[in-house]
Write a structure and sequence with these properties.
With 536 residues, the protein is of the alpha/beta class. The chain contains 20 helices and 16 strands. The strands form three sheets. A seven-stranded mixed sheet has the order 4-3-2-5-6-7-14, sandwiched between helices. A six-stranded parallel sheet has the order 10-9-8-11-12-13. α14 links the parallel β9 and β10. α6 runs antiparallel to α8, α6 packs antiparallel against α12 and α10 packs across α18. The N terminus is likely disordered.
Amino acid sequence: MKNIQGNSLPNWKKIKSNFNSIPKLDKKILIATSSGGLLNQLVSETLFANALKSKGCSIEFILCDEILPACVVSMIETCDEKKMLNGKISNLCATCFSRAKKNIDSMGFKTHKFSKYIDKDQIRSINLMNFDDYSFKDIINYEIDSIKVGQHAYSATLRYYGVGDLDVEKNSKKILIKYLKASIISKIVFENFLNTEKYDHILINSGLYVPQGILTEIAGNKGIFTTTWEFAYKKFSYFFSKNQTFHNAAFLEPNSNWENIDMNQVIQTRIDDYLKSRWEGNQDRKIFIQKPNYEISKFFELNNFDTSKPIIGLATNLIWDAIVYYEDSFFDSVEWVDYTIKYFLKRKDLNLVIRIHPAEVLKDKPSRQRMDLEIKKKFKNLPDNILVVPPDNPISTYKLFECCNSVITYCTKMGVELTATGMPVIVCGNGPIKNKKIAIDVSSEEEYKKVLDNLPLNEKIKGSKLERAKKYAYHFFFRKTIQIKSLYERKNKYPSIGIKNNLFKSLNNKEDLALEKIADKIIKNEEIIYNDEDNL
């Protein structure tokens, strides 16, 4: 099958004339790509742009044109501290902007540049601002006109390093100040921009970090309807969230969005089959364990682990990931693990198996602050009833937790999967399974202690509660997760997704039902949920 590839981005010049007649619709939509170097996001947003254009919307983009001293594109793996601190990220910036603008221009869409909405003297003055005497806390809490520029800078810096504690990095304060200045510049740009240009809707990738997080906050303050989006777990799929980020939307979503789904056998088989496929990840965008080991008895034997006692599982998050996305929990993720281990030191009647997230050692973004190493710092010798499974151990997480009496989670979506298979889950952070009346929700240290004191639990999830858990899992993976047919995989390439050559035929004939739904909901300023059950 031939595909629209160009060099690395879709070659829109060859296909832009393939639309049938386009209706006229009085709807102006901004696609706030902002950081053109995020190529998978750019491919996705050009796809969304053409879907919206096919329905008559006026589409515009905005891009940073090399004026920010730091942004979401810069990470320590691709832009080291020396380059960041010496202001030598110009090569990264030039490629980021020029390639993205050329691709957008080829579709005939208007692109706004950051530099048009801020004076060079303002940029110079901001870059000369001295924050050396500010503490970390002062910088993180720094606000201008109630815009949390310091918080956005903080989340971006955690992501840059891949850590949850900036104290572990020698130059982190200097990098944090770079991101703070980028946040301040972004604030001025977006406020001036939105005071000049008026939009019915803004589509923003992630809605976090710098500059996207700044725009999300400003647009919200101005009452502009926004949709943020994230890549979902399945291939070619997305999460969309109304006026907030996905991570907040997931645990705050009204249960009325899903609890009245009619769970027939077709739907139940659909979710059961997908959850089973997660063991190998063959339907998913990322595979964390390439060749899972399912020999669980041998694994326990090699680790001299006594399985005669009830086993309680614990699934960690990436440390930096949990702080950025779920900072309002009663414990941060390191404190949570620390507290849990100290508790189980006294519970010799129970086993605790801590599964460190395999993503800690991903090649494209390895964590520089790993949970297993944090545990080793505080607990030199753990007793026989506590087993820590490192992130690079190939034992299947699913097989491991299958042996458990119950599993404790923080914010991982693993809670959605486990409850749908009947495994009781205790959720201590703001993960998507929270507030669904399925898991055991914990909101304070006192509540957590009481829940732990009641372990082991007497039974698995079953009956109507199990049906409820399957219903939510189906909603999460097939209705909030929206899979688009118009994409294909570019293995071992970047961007890793491309757009099929039949896109315009598909748009003209409304063949990609998910893409049609996305565009229609954006136009109507409505929350995007795909009614998968209507198309089975």
